[in-house]
Structures are given as structure tokens and as C-alpha cells.
């Protein structure tokens, strides 16, 4: 896969259109069970109250409490049906200045609302990383039609537009924060990130300033990973356990570095998972601004 040039990198930062490409097929060719991640939780329907995503999230164990010795091996993890995961960036109406390519990363407000409504109408339940981690490592049950919604790059509209929309349906999400942007114009503040966390969403790391993990050496690990993790833990008062690769780019060398810094899983984009370390290459697809709800639905079914 082509690495982004330095100029592309700055362009991506300006646009906050930061992931390297759209891919909707990924492992679809080798995956024979699309969207069958529906593992019915027998407890969910019997509690007498409607299970909300928050209840489910609360029910998921802290990943650090799952003993390493009792977790599934790579082959077993790869054999489980994948949970569909969507990746969003900006949620705002297109302007004349938006390039054709950028529009994959900019979902117009009405389109976004239609995406979320389609998911709700189709019976999808949002899940969070602790639930997916427990599912992948121990076979823990998930709600029927699970889906994870993730938002990268700290854009303000994720708080002002996406959050209230998800609230309508009791949906929770994952926000992968790039800490350099906190408090800047058009980006979320620390208080907003704290609020999202307090409201039961998961905050993950997306580095300090979006540099490609494959190029880190020496101090880069401290700048891009250690310090942002500390910042996010101070803001949320919680451990930061999950990471999303800028541009979706990763290499095997990154896995031990992330593990020794306390991450339990990392999220890439639509490319094939690493066969030895599937937890550090959990797949997501970018929900394009061009996609009508029907296209999104087809992509979900075909890609996972
Ligand atoms: Zn990004």
C-alpha cells in the first residue's frame, strides 16, 4: 500500500480527511459469513427492561481482567464472525471547496442522519470495544445485529451533530482522538471528550498529530503514543485501552510497542487482518459521504 507523502499528510490534517483509502471489500472474498455476528444474548430479552448500549457496555468486563492464559488464540479469533465497524470523520454539508476525494470523509448531515436511522430501523445495536474484545477473546455474547460506530480525528461536528443523533436511538460510539487538535477551532475541547466518556462512550487514542505508525522511531513512540495516552487518561479518568492507526496503516513492529504501552486492541481499515495478531488489526470500513443508506447497508453486509 502506498504511503502518504509529507505533503499529503499535511493536506490530510487540514482536511481531517485522514485515512488512506476507501475499501469496501477487504476480507469479504474470504469471509463466508457476512453480518452473522448476531450472537444472541439470552439474558438481553429476559431482564424486563430494554437493554441499552450503556447497560451492555457496563456488562462487558474490563479487558485487563480477562486472564491472558484464557483468551482465544489467533486462529480462533479469526474464525469468529467479524463485528461490523464503521469509521466516520466529518459530519457536515459539503462546500464548493471540498474535493471529490474529501467527500468520502465528509458525510452531509442529512446523509448521516439517514445512515443512523437505517441502522436503527434494521435492528442494529451498537457495541463498544470492551464488548468486542470479550467476544473475540472469550466468545462472550453480543446483542443481536451488533455494530460499532467509530469517529476519528476529534472533529467538533462529532460532538455537535453526531452525538445528539446517536442519543435519539440510545447508541454509543468510540471516539478516536488526535490530541494535538483538542481545543482548536473546529475540533472538540477536552470538556467535550470528558462528557462523551462520562456518557458511556469509549475514548481511544489516534496519536498526537496523526503521523504514520510505520515510520516511528525512538522518541516518536513517546510523542505520538505515550503522551497522548496520558492526556486522554487525565481527561477521562479512565484507562485508554484502544488505538486506531492513522490512515489505517500498521506493521507488525507496532504490535509489541502498543502492547507494552497497555493497549489491548487496535483498529485498522478495510485491509485484511494480520493472521498472527488479529486483535491489533481489527477491521473497519469508512462510511462514505457518497453512500445512501442502502449502499451503506450493502457495504456492511459485504465487508464483514
Ligand atoms: Zn485519522
From TrEMBL:
GO terms for biological process: carbohydrate metabolic process. The keyword Signal applies. One of its GO terms (molecular function) is hydrolase activity, acting on carbon-nitrogen (but not peptide) bonds. Residues 45-54 have a biased composition (Low complexity). Gene3D superfamilies: Glycoside hydrolase/deacetylase. Residues 45-66 are annotated as: Disordered. GO terms for cellular component: extracellular region. Coiled coil: none annotated. It is found in: Secreted. Residues 1-23 form the signal peptide. Keywords: Signal. PANTHER family: POLY-BETA-1,6-N-ACETYL-D-GLUCOSAMINE N-DEACETYLASE, PTHR34216. This is Polysaccharide deacetylase family protein. The lineage of its organism: Bacteria, Pseudomonadati, Bacteroidota, Cytophagia, Cytophagales.
Amino acid at each position: 500500500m502506498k504511503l502518504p507523502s509529507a505533503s499529503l499528510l499535511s493536506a490530510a490534517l487540514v482536511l481531517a480527511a485522514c485515512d488512506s483509502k476507501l475499501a469496501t471489500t477487504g476480507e469479504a472474498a474470504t469471509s463466508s459469513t457476512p453480518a452473522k455476528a448476531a450472537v444472541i444474548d439470552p439474558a438481553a430479552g429476559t431482564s424486563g427492561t430494554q437493554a441499552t448500549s450503556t447497560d451492555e457496555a457496563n456488562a462487558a468486563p474490563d479487558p485487563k481482567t480477562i486472564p491472558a492464559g484464557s483468551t482465544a488464540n489467533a486462529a480462533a479469533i479469526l474464525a469468529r464472525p467479524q463485528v461490523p465497524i464503521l469509521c466516520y470523520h466529518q459530519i457536515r454539508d459539503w462546500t464548493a471547496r471540498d474535493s471529490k476525494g474529501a467527500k468520502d470523509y465528509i458525510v452531509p448531515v442529512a446523509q448521516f442522519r439517514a445512515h443512523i436511522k437505517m441502522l436503527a430501523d434494521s435492528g442494529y445495536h451498537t457495541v463498544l470495544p470492551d464488548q468486542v474484545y470479550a467476544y473475540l477473546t472469550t466468545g462472550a455474547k453480543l446483542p443481536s445485529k451488533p455494530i460499532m460506530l467509530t469517529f476519528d480525528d476529534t472533529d467538533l461536528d462529532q460532538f455537535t451533530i453526531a452525538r445528539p443523533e446517536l442519543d435519539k436511538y440510545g447508541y454509543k460510539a468510540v471516539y478516536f482522538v488526535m490530541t494535538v487538535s483538542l481545543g482548536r477551532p473546529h475540533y472538540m475541547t477536552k470538556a467535550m471528550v470528558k462528557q462523551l466518556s462520562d456518557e458511556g462512550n469509549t475514548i481511544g487514542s489516534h496519536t498526537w498529530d496523526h503521523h504514520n505508525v510505520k515510520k516511528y522511531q525512538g522518541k516518536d513512540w513517546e510523542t505520538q503514543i505515550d503522551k497522548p495516552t496520558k492526556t486522554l487518561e487525565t481527561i477521562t479518568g479512565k484507562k485508554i485501552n484502544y488505538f486506531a492507526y492513522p490512515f489505517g496503516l500498521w506493521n507488525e513492529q507496532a504490535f509489541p510497542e502498543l502492547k507494552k504501552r497497555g493497549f489491548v486492541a487496535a483498529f485498522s481499515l478495510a485491509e485484511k487482518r494480520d493472521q498472527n495478531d488479529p486483535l491489533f488489526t481489527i477491521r473497519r470500513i469508512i462510511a462514505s459521504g457518497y453512500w445512501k443508506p442502502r449502499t451503506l447497508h450493502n457495504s456492511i453486509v459485504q465487508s464483514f
